[in-house]
Amino acid sequence: MSAVANPTRAAREDTPRSPQAGAPVVRLHDVHKSFGALKVLDGVSLDVGPGEVAAIIGQSGSGKSTALRCINALETIQQGTIHVCGHAIHDPQLDRRALRRDVGIVFQSYNLFPHLTAEQNIMLAPTCVKGMTKAQARELAREVLSHVGLAEKAEHYPEQLSGGQQQRVAIARSLAMRPKLMLFDEVTSALDPQLTGEVLKVMENLAREGMTMILVTHEMAFARKVASKVVYMHRGRVWETGTGAMLDDPQTPELRAFIGNGL
Amino acid sequence: MQSFGLAHVEFLAWAALWTVGLSAIAFVGGGLLGFAVALLRVSANPAARLAAIVYIQIVQGTPLLILLFLIYFGVAVIGFTGVPAILAAGAGLTIYASGFLAEIWRGCIQSVPKTQWEAAECLALTRWQRMTRVILPQALRIATPPTVGFLVQIVKNTSLASVVGFVELAQAGKLINNSIFEPFTIFVTVAVFYFALCFPLSTWSRSLERTLNVSRR
């Protein structure tokens, strides 16, 4: 069984920091990654253009979370190239802090800072990294909190919030840095269906506003409805790529089996 | 022969002040040095980490008594004669405390989940900002009980400073006993003094734990 080739696009150097219309925000080319003897990514290639919402789906262990973490340089790759918002991730000289100003990530386990209130969680990076004053950062925090529907929870500590609320604060915390790209790593996997719904709604709004997003998810309905590109990963490879409609008409027996199991 | 009286208790009280002073020197000095060593111990630089490990192992592997002898008599050998006992005892206890506090605090820093580092890193914070704004405030809560517990150890270990001729609580008790020979009465009194110093520390530790727990997840 051969992997479906990634969408062909005229090969070109994409170094500019602000991508021109159509130039990919994220480009992975033939990325290989192993943990010891375990091969996790086996030649992954993927393009995500500005304003696109890419949903990566696949079984546990298919490499989808690792692929996402590589995009944010949380993992180093052994082979291949990754370009993200003009940053060459594979370059050992990569300026990680510059990259992280452009890319936001939200984790499955929220990872809010427990000693800070929701508002302080959000204010931390804008004051430390962007040099905002406390007052400016507070105003920004209120703004992004109301964006995720939690304006009234500003003074609450994470432990006083539900899982869904914590995850929305985590999304707001990333948004406060005005990223060009948002990564979501199974952000609803720890939530019950009702709380999942409120987080997905926030993500859907973001997508509608034109945010470029890559999400690793098990929410097939959400991928079908919101994603402009669905990427099925299997055994460390991009096995099948398409629009949401791909899920109704899988080309490979592996995706067919995966969707069958999911129902 | 004179028997145990108020004058002796007063003498012990003065000596107890020296015990407090020596403990304070050891704790402040050991705390500053220990904090620096703890930061080196978790630094990204392997050479710095190794240096911290070697320092901690040597200090923890040396009896405090030997450390005190080394400083008091050792510096005389290399030319500095007449080091005051308080300086030698203070330096010895500082080094001793730094070795243990560094290791206690290293454990506390590392017990903050790795995902907290990651989240802070992904917000573009510098390593120093991650440490001071995210990790240390959380580590502080974890560190309070063992740190105060160790402070109690220091208070008691200052009694070893008597070997370099420093008159603190234990040494004062010995001096009184040499003159009136009522060991039981004298050393029970000395023990009561030590307890009176250490008990408030333990109580303080518990109350700190409660205060710091208020905004804990």
Automatic annotation (TrEMBL), chain A:
Family matches, as CDD domains: ABC_HisP_GlnQ
First and last residue of the signal peptide: none
Gene Ontology CC: plasma membrane
Keywords: Amino-acid transport, ATP-binding, Cell membrane, Membrane, Nucleotide-binding, Transport
Domain ABC transporter: 26-260
Keyword Cell membrane annotated: yes
Cellular location(s): Cell membrane
Protein name: Amino acid ABC transporter ATP-binding protein
The organism of origin for this protein: Azospirillum griseum
TrEMBL record, chain B:
Source organism (scientific name): Azospirillum griseum
GO biological process, one term: amino acid transport
Keyword Cell membrane: yes
Protein name per the record: Amino acid ABC transporter permease
Membrane-spanning segments: 12-40, 52-80, 86-105, 184-204
Cellular component per GO, a single term: ATP-binding cassette (ABC) transporter complex
Signal peptide interval: none
GO molecular function, one term: transmembrane transporter activity
Pfam families tied to this protein: BPD_transp_1 (PF00528)
Entry membrane topology: Multi-pass membrane protein
The organism's taxonomic lineage, starting at the top: Bacteria, Pseudomonadati, Pseudomonadota, Alphaproteobacteria, Rhodospirillales
Entry-linked Gene3D superfamilies: MetI-like
